[in-house]
Design goal:
single chain, mainly beta, 8-stranded antiparallel sheet, 5-stranded antiparallel sheet, 6 helices, 13% helix, globular
Length: 700
């Protein structure tokens, strides 16, 4: 035998062995159960099964049982594209020999959840025994992040996690055709993997940039700062004196006649410094031109007072003829403890009677209840703008039959330092009960209703109706002074005197009817009302709830409803129709806290306090006309009863009273009387206000 024949024989033998090995591998691939790709390996050049290369990456083995080189995928003579061999769930051709799936780039998870192709039985991270199929076991798929890079941590072959559909043996010619088709698929796969690697790289760069910039979940929270805003100056507007309406009776520029010879309008004011500090700058001035009327801190010493000492200053009976402004600068970190009130008295003329009002802080939303525009009654709404910004005022009116849309009730312009007088009869005539909602845009305004009544030629009383608390389901009205009910009923029978009967006027501005429950507290405790004190009030109306069954005394009304209501109590004083009567209106007030300074008017007054739901205490400190503070006096309040305190009980001549309440919620008011018929009611003013913390907005 020649050398060529021997060499040729050996080559032919080797070729037959290789062909047999190829057929064995194909048979094994068609019958073996394989799992979807679980781990991914870096993309690289594929190695033929005929050129087995030892691998350094444990767990990456070819489907023929021959280890594949790290970064390479072993195949039986052909390379499968990712779209052909890794797309799980797509049925693959039954031709060709088994080949390892194209691995995904490092860091990118391979598609999972799709069954492997019968001709591509190898999966990255799984091993098939050369001498037979290997048993499979179910294993949940790794999360994408866990799957990426798992090949680097693997120390051995991982079992297949699911069966693949079986296929019959492929013919040799079919295998050759399959190899040719898959070579083209591999070239297309290379381009797709290159694009995927580029896109993944860009995504990683963006993610890295986001991490550096602190965007997304990794961003650190920024604490929003707060700014301490100091207390602002205190401002109180005292209303104009009452004047008799004449001439234009249906416009917003009312005309008035001369007042009676005995009419007198005065303002009383007081200011207190914080303990151990000097008096803050405070004074009275005209709203219209800012002309000074009195300086409350004038003549005080520049020497700081002793620790714990509170200096004070008082102005008594300062005559005024127009709207007046009280102003006081802050006292340290707190708003100044200051207050003022205007008192009107007249003993003759059509405006005979007594009216008193606190000097109120201007606001953009105010409610007034208790006015009348029926025959003989005149109600003039005073709108005063003490600011430097013009105000545009809209009025909403509610009467006994429902809302009243009066002409000229919108867009009332009130310039800086100006007072506009609106005759309510021109907007809502013939109303026995009227509620007015004042809303202003621009500058805030002070609002008060100047009310006077004439019964023929007999004066029926005057009052300055002040704002009540905004509509809410719970309201408390203090300082309701009821005279002898028998005397009142007898007087009410006279022609034109029906309105002298005391009543609670309740306005329901919402769209739903309200069930109103009323509790009445007197000096002896709760008083039972006829009928149980439960009433129905129609939506959009003002109803009068009778109080004429109450015995003589001072009362507090506790109102609860299933809808927001605004309320005020209307009552009268006087028994002789020849001498006339006076009218009083008590508005709902707020719960008392600390530093309420009640300035006493130039008339007799009584302070009344009530704790409707539990025991409480009030600490009262009198302030003399010279500004000195008297000794503090503590008054205990029983639950559900009215306690009256006369200023003279605090010792000395008292011009103002400093009120501090503790315990259960406490409400209070002043009941003011003068002469035989004069009567009025004042809510206790709000306590002083400190600075506040305002959140600073952070934006871009």
């Amino acid at each position: 035998m020649s050398t060529e024949s021997f060499g040729g024989g050996r080559r032919a033998a080797r070729q037959r062995e290789k062909d047999a090995a190829d057929r064995t591998a194909a048979d094994t691939a068609s019958t073996e159960d394989t799992a979807p790709t679980e781990d991914t390996a870096p993309a690289g050049d594929t190695a033929s099964a005929r050129e087995a290369v030892p691998t350094d990456a444990a767990g990456d083995t070819a489907s023929t049982g021959v280890p594949a080189a790290a970064g390479e995928s072993a195949a039986t003579g052909n390379t499968a594209s990712p779209g052909d061999s890794e797309s799980a769930g797509e049925p693959a051709s039954t031709e060709g020999r088994a080949s390892a799936s194209e691995p995904a780039p490092s860091g990118e998870p391979a598609p999972s959840g799709e069954p492997a192709s019968p001709e591509n039985t190898a999966a990255t991270g799984s091993s098939a025994a050369a001498d037979g199929p290997e048993k499979t076991q179910d294993k949940p798929a790794d999360p994408p992040i866990a799957a990426a890079g798992k090949a680097d941590r693997a120390e051995g072959p991982a079992p297949a996690s699911g069966p693949a559909p079986a296929a019959g043996p492929a013919s040799a010619s079919g295998a050759v055709g399959s190899r040719e088709r898959k070579r083209g698929s591999a070239r297309r796969s290379t381009g797709r993997w290159a694009a995927g690697i580029l896109l993944l790289g860009c995504t990683g760069a963006v993610a890295a940039g986001a991490g550096v910039a602190g965007i997304g979940a990794s961003a650190q929270s920024v604490e929003v700062p707060f700014a301490e805003v100091p207390a602002g100056p205190l401002t109180g507007v005292c209303p104009e004196p009452l004047r008799l309406l004449s001439g234009n009776v249906a416009g917003t520029d009312a005309e008035f006649s001369a007042e009676s010879t005995s009419a007198r309008s005065v303002v009383n004011a007081a200011v207190l410094a914080a303990a151990g500090t000097q008096l803050p700058a405070a004074g009275l001035a005209k709203v219209a031109d800012g002309a000074s009327l009195a300086e409350l801190s004038a003549g005080t010493s520049d020497t700081p007072p002793l620790a714990g000492t509170r200096p004070g200053a008082v102005v008594r009976d300062r005559a005024v003829s127009a709207a007046t402004l009280l102003s006081a600068e802050p006292s340290g970190a707190l708003q100044a403890t200051a207050g003022a009130g205007m008192t009107y008295t007249a003993a003759d003329g059509d405006l005979t009677g007594l009216a008193a009002a606190n000097c109120q802080a201007p606001a953009n939303d105010l409610w007034l209840v208790g006015a009348r525009t029926a025959v003989g009654a005149t109600a003039v709404l005073q709108l005063t703008n003490p600011s430097q910004t013009a105000a545009d005022v809209d009025l909403e009116l509610y009467g006994t039959a429902g809302p009243v849309d009066g002409p000229g009730s919108r867009g009332i312009s009130v310039g800086p330092g100006q007072t506009r007088n609106v005759v309510l009869a021109g907007l809502a005539a013939n109303q026995e009960s009227l509620a007015v909602h004042v809303r202003s845009s621009g500058g805030p305004v002070a609002a008060v209703i100047s009310q006077n009544i004439l019964r023929g030629l007999t004066p029926g009383g005057v009052e300055l109706i002040q704002p009540t608390t905004a509509p809410q389901p719970a309201q408390v009205i203090s300082g309701v002074r009821i005279q002898n009910p028998e005397t009142t009923r007898k007087l009410a029978k006279e022609d034109g005197y029906a309105s002298v009967l005391p009543s609670l006027q309740v306005a329901v501005p919402g769209a739903s009817d309200a069930v109103v429950n009323l509790r009445v507290f007197g000096p002896a405790g709760e008083v039972q009302l006829e009928g149980g004190g439960s009433y129905n009030v129609a939506a959009g109306t003002v109803s009068r709830l009778p109080l004429d069954s109450l015995p003589e005394g001072t009362y507090t009304l506790d109102i609860s409803a299933d809808a927001g209501v605004a309320a005020a109590a209307v009552f009268s004083r006087g028994s002789d129709p020849e001498k006339g009567t006076d009218v009083g209106v008590a508005a709902a007030g707020e719960r008392l806290g600390s530093e309420h300074l009640a300035v006493l008017p130039s008339a007799d007054s009584v302070l009344s306090f009530t704790a409707p739901d539990g025991a409480a205490e009030v600490q009262l400190t009198g302030v003399t006309a010279s500004g000195d503070l008297l000794a503090e006096k503590t008054v205990k309040l029983g639950a559900g009863s009215v306690t009256e305190v006369r200023p003279g009980d605090l010792g000395g001549s008292v011009a103002a009273v400093l009120v501090h309440a503790t315990g259960a919620p406490v409400f209070g008011a002043q009941s003011v009387t003068g002469g035989e018929t004069g009567i009025s009611a004042l809510t206790l003013p709000r306590g002083n206000v400190g600075g506040s913390r305002v959140q600073v907005g952070v934006g871009y």
